[in-house]
Amino acid sequence: xxxxxxxxxSAVLFCIGIYGVVVRRNGVMVLMSIELILNAVNINLVxxxxxxxxxxxxxFSLFVIAVAAAEVGVGLAIVLLIYRNRHSIDIDELDExxx
Amino acid sequence: MLENVWxxxxxxxxxxxxxxxxxxxxxGKGHFIGIAAVAVAFVLALVTAGEWIAREPxxxxxxxxxxxxxxxxxxPQLARDGAYPVEAEGHGGEGKEASGDHGGEDEHAAGxxxxxxxxxxxxxxxxxxxxxxxxxxxxxxxxxxxLGWYQSSTTDGGEHGVTDAAxxxxxxxxxxxxxxxxxxxxxxxTLISLxxxxxxxxxxxxxxxxxxxxAFLSLFTxxxxxxxxxxxxxxxxxxxxxxxxxxxxxxxxxxxxxPNSDAALKAFLTNxxxxxxxxxxxxxxxxxxxxxxxxxxxxxxxxNGEISHTLLxxxxxxxxxxxxxxxxxxxxxxxxxxxxxxxxxxxxxxHAATMVVAxxxxxxxxxxxxxxxxxxxxxxxxxxxxxxSVTALFGALLGFVQKDIKKVLAYxxxxxxxxxxxxxxxxxxxxxxxxxxxxxxxxxxxxxxxxSLSHACHHSFNMVDDMGxxxxxxxxxxxxxxxxxxxxxxxFPLAGFWSKDEILAGTGGMNKANGTYYFxxxxxxxxxxxxxxxxxRTVWYAFFGEYRGHHHPHESGPRITIxxxxxxxxxxxxxxxxxPSQMGGLDLHSVAHQFEHLVEPVGIYFPGEAQGFTHAKxxxxxxxxxxxxxxxxxxxxxxxxxxxxxxLEGLASRLRIARAGKTLLENKYYLDHLYTDVVAGGxxxxxxxxxxxxxxxxxxxxxxxxxxxxxxxxxxxxSKIDQAVVDGAVDGVAAASSGxxxxxxxxxxxxxxxxAALFFAAAALLAGVIVVVIxx
Lengths: 99, 776
What we know:
The complex is a heterodimer. By secondary structure, chain A is mainly α. Chain A has a single domain (2-93), classed as Helix Hairpins. Chain A is 80% helix and 0% strand. In chain A, helix 2 runs antiparallel to helix 3. Chain A starts with a helix and ends in a 13-residue tail after the last helix. Among the domains of chain B are: 380-666, no CATH class; 747-776. Chain B has 29 helices and 4 strands. In chain B, strand 3 and strand 4 form a beta hairpin. In chain B, helix 11 (309-326) runs antiparallel to helix 14 (356-365), helix 17 packs antiparallel against helix 18 (429-456) and helix 20 runs parallel beside helix 23. In chain B, 51% of the residues are buried. Classes of the chains: A mainly alpha, B mainly alpha. The A-B interface holds A 18, 21-23, 30, 91-92, 94-99 and B 744-753, 756-757, 760.
């Protein structure tokens, strides 16, 4: 079935996104990995929407794209501020909440 | 007024409170209130006396008790029920009564100290009873009113005339018994107190505690009035102690000087000794008389043989101890001369009207107890008579060696009180009260006179060194003092002659009226001789010879001399109140025995002729002998001091026995040494050691033991409970938190990616669970 291939693609993208979030030290790279995860979800939504023949999946994914755009805006602003304060965007160094 | 006499003591009591509260702000700093209160009390006392004199006697003993409230006394009810024989019904009743009484004496006579002679008593009683038949008997009508303040139930086995109930209510009351005896004292106390108040305004003028002084004079008067009106023995004790407290406060009025406060303490503590006797005596009588404090009940039962002779004897002896301390009888008299440390008007009040006469009054009040307990009518010697006569003579002897004029007068009071006690001891009840009455006037006159002398001589009482030749400078004091002196010495026709003579006649040594107290007669005659002699000595030193002081004496003001004159006048004429009916061929029947008629009770509560209570008749020979003894005392002393009796001069330095006697007297029979060194010193050391031992071993042991136990218990609790259990729990919780915290803190690395990894791992796990559990 066509659906399975979309789902496999989305799963792969999701895993790459998770991997990127967990492993990358660069803050920008982490944000990009999050975009991958979100897009994996979008693929899922569109695939299910096409499969069931309703516009709902497309509407949701449009929402997600809009929210993701906002999120990246905020996220990049945070990263920029971190860089201004610390001259580094290495996430491993941001362990001030350590117990 | 007879029912409401309680007002009379209430007025000075109120004045005491008023003077203390506002006295300092009133003009006169309080003496106006005091004088006004005592003056009102005196007027009311006179009104009471008038009503008493006007009171008609009753014809039979039962109706005589009509004014005795049933709430206070059960005697009237019992009398109406016929519990007591009515003597008025003729000779038979009397005879029965007399024989019954002597039968009772017979039983006890063998075992008792008193060797009663019933046969003698019988012989005496018979002619007296015959004489009584001639006159219609009259019974005095006492008025008793009371107010209950405490009630409690008690069981009484139906004895003592209480037949109706086994459980009965004991009521403690406060009230008044108005009869001749108490009315007499009302008048005497308020009169002397009034004069002393007036005198004091001059004498203690400008004193540092002037207001306080008048407040206590008021309280003193109120206490004595409360005491004399007492309707029950409990109230008597209260009045007795109140009087003691007031005397303590007034003797120690100038307490800044050590001897004065010592004297006050001595007066108070010596009286405590006797008070034990009073307490025991009253309690004995309370149970003996079937649980009643009422004086009338006690007297009636004692008088009708309802209380056993042994019991009466015991309580009489206990009460004699009380009399010995209060009325300054020999061996417990030592406080009385020391009490001269107080202001002189107070001494006059103590010696004439209040305090010391309380003992005499108490014996007179409870007379049936003594009369039957000591078998006075039938014996020729008894404790009361011996105590009195010994005191009369030994007290008089002490008057010879004192330099202080007030101390001579104090010993004179001791001696005169001895006369009164001896008189009561020999059965001459009326004579004792008559002597109390006359003595109050002339002794108050003498004391106030001595105060006037000291007022003139710069507050010195030393008649040997600081006085002399004062008769020309102080004529009013001299005249009044002379009247008092002659009256005390028993010179005809002054008051002291009549009362002293009545006492001497009452001993029965000459005319066999009661028992035959020869011993008492001899002692009292010697005492009368000594009295005249030592009083002459004071007159000689104070008023004759050359003035030996260093200041310029002057006559005292009218506030001092007018009370002196009033007292001197009364001291001269008071004796006519009780003239004998027959005297040297003169028939004085119409005016005779007024005092006896008014004061002496007749009724079932007082010994009558049937019980051997008789009245001595005037005896011409005895009067001559007594007068001769007095005159001899005066004349011998006079010659001695004017130098006409050279044989006696320097006797003490020439004769060893005379020297020994003088030393003995100067040391007051070593009684003070006995008390302070032997009794107090002997008990002080062992008592202190015993107390110390008790304190160290027992009290401290208990305290230390308690302390040690507490410390040990505390240690155990600390180590076992606090440290192990409580702290263990607290520490355990803390350590557990710390441990888990240490473990858990490692999870919080602060690395966002680690959290994300965990988050996803958890989400994956959850997803897996959902797939397996739900989806599966």
